Amino acid sequence: MGFLNYTFDWSVLWRHPYGNMFIKGVVTTIHLSLLAWMIAVIVGIAIGIFRVLPIRSFRFAGSFYVQIFRNTPFLVQLFFWYFAAPLLLPEPAQEWLYDNVPNYAYWAGVAALGTYTASRVAEHFRSGLLAIPHDQYRAAYSTGLTTMQTYRYVIAPYAFRIIIPPFTTEFLTCFKNSSLAMTIGVMEVTHTAYYVDSFTSHGLETTTAASLVYLCIALCVALFMSFVEKRIYIPGMIARGQ
Amino acid sequence: MDMDVIARNLHFMLGGLVLTFELAIITLAGGFLVGLILAMGRLSSRAWLYYPATCYVHFFRGLPLILVIFWLYFLSPVVTGRSLEAFYAAIIAFVVFEGAYFAEIIRAGIQSIPKGQAMAAYSTGLTPFQCTRDVILPQALRNMTPALVTQAVIIFQDTSLAYVIGLREFLRRVNLVDAREARSVELYLFAGLLYFTFCSAGSLLSQRLENRRQRNRV
Amino acid sequence: MIEIKNVSLWYDKNHQVLNDISETIQRGQTVVICGPSGSGKSSLLRCINGLEYFQKGDIIVNGVSVQDPDTNIHQLRSNIGMVFQHFELYPHMTAMENITLAPLRVRKKSKNEAEKKAMEILERVGIPEQALKYPAELSGGQKQRVAIARALAMEPKIMLFDEPTSALDPEMIKEVLDVMIDLAGEGMTMVVVTHEMGFAREVAHEIIFMDKGRMIEKGSGHDFFNHPKNERTRQFLSRILI
Fold first, then answer.
1. For residue C152, with 0-12 CB atoms within 10 Å meaning exposed, 13-18 middle and 19 or more buried, which class applies?
2. What are chain B's domains?
3. Are A142 and C134 inside 8 Å of each other by CB?
4. In the structure, do chain C and chain A come into contact, i.e. share 3 or more CB pairs under 8 Å?
5. pLDDT tens digits for C82-136?
6. Which residues pair with C64 in a beta bridge?
7. For chain A, how many structural domains are there in total?
8. Which residue among B61, B206, B217, C95 is least packed, with the fewest CB closer than 10 Å?
9. Cβ distance of C82 and A149 shorter than 8 Å
């Protein structure tokens, strides 16, 4: 019955001032996720390497990082970065932060998403490295290649192809998780959908639009990656899962 | 550091854990059921089962959970004519969303069973239903237990998202205490530690199960 | 050419893998090592080209001590070819690229020269037509022949074979053994870990039987098969020669 009482008004998606808000929201989602992803890849690969080094304290540090970040909800981490982290700074630095960084929430979101995603990237990177048989290294060394050459010509290209599918998945997860930044007030696309609803009460249209944004991003990335995979296709390697 | 703030509000905050566990357990059971049905669809050779199930899985795996919660929140008044209680909105959103993830875990578990098992079952005269229920599923379940435990840990963490529609689960209560007491460092460390305790227990269990499975593999 | 002097190797305190192994291998000889799995055969092989670090004893190859800190281990290895049980071809490179990698990077040969040489060797192992295929597109026997070609491309003085036929289907074993028999006939110094007793009988100058890290028995092909001295050797032979 209630269905009839609702009239769709899709114009909330482009009508002034909501149209601009949406565009800004999409843009924010994209650069927040991309920045976080860059942190995630750099930190994640470093941690992943830590976890396979023959030095016990490095392995322990790497494993500690992964355990901490994987076994607490991302939302708690986000709140910690936003509410608690500044309080750990000395007083003057706190003042400076609150006075001079008006979009601190955004940077807290980037830091939280980056470090969290890094823990997941690290695990994929590590299992990629471990998936290469020991004798593969030995084969390279046995022909006289140095350690550098072995990694550069044999191990890296091999590992690269193993980790592409899980990295693609993680990249998309990073995008989806960026939506949580709304809880600390970052105006990304999910928050925009919610926000526009509060003026127009047309939340159904706005959430549909936001959903389409995520699905479009997922589709674009999937298409791009299948192009990349075709470019680097080698018989017998990379069987991309569903 | 002022640990007293935790002691003072401990009772109130831990009270939220009840709701957190309630959400997690219902989601786990419901999500598994939805996942099982979807997985059967994903593995079916009938197009009218395969395509809807596949679309469902891809659709929900492409969306952030928070958006699914909003969707339900906005959609339910339109369909039912009145707003849904936040608790039910959260539960339905969780089940619908996590079902897509369960589907893939279950599908992988079923596909890990060699084809010969089904053939052996059919050769003794079992029907497809009996074969699935008595031969394939029990083995598949054992194979996917570690992944299921990991997913349970993820769900436990995901319940914190019920926060956004105002449910007073554990994290929401920590948040409320922080708003009053302004002791963010202590409170969020405490929240993190508490989640960490439960989740790492789960992760450890998953690891154990996986190691045992690897050892017992024929 | 290879002098193994009292080598002992432990993986950890309670796990001794090699126990006081001594052996001298002359230029042009083929030595076959056999024994049950876990007897330390493969570890001994890896010690010869420095892929395994041993705690006691010394190995001298061509007058150079393998574990001497002053030894250029990469140069040493480049003169010792090695072939693995599971081939360990680099899956992201064609057969040709697998063969030419070390000549290009270690020997700094020109691409032309390296490829010309690679083709010659591929002819020698009987599969010139497979040069541009990836490992996943080759049969097991072809893979192992490419792996042998990869080792031969460095013009090694010594070849080490680590169970080169045990991952192969029976019908492919012969094509690999034929290549090895040719090599032995051309006067290559070879150390072969294998259970192919027919091969051992035909080409081995000496056969060594190992068990639990010890060298139990060694002798010429004739003595070893017809008059084994040790009871464990007799047991092993009666199992394997059925």
1. buried
2. 4-217 (1.10.3720.10)
3. no
4. yes
5. 999 988 888 888 999 999 988 988 888 999 999 999 999 999 999 999 999 999 8
6. C61
7. 1
8. B217
9. no
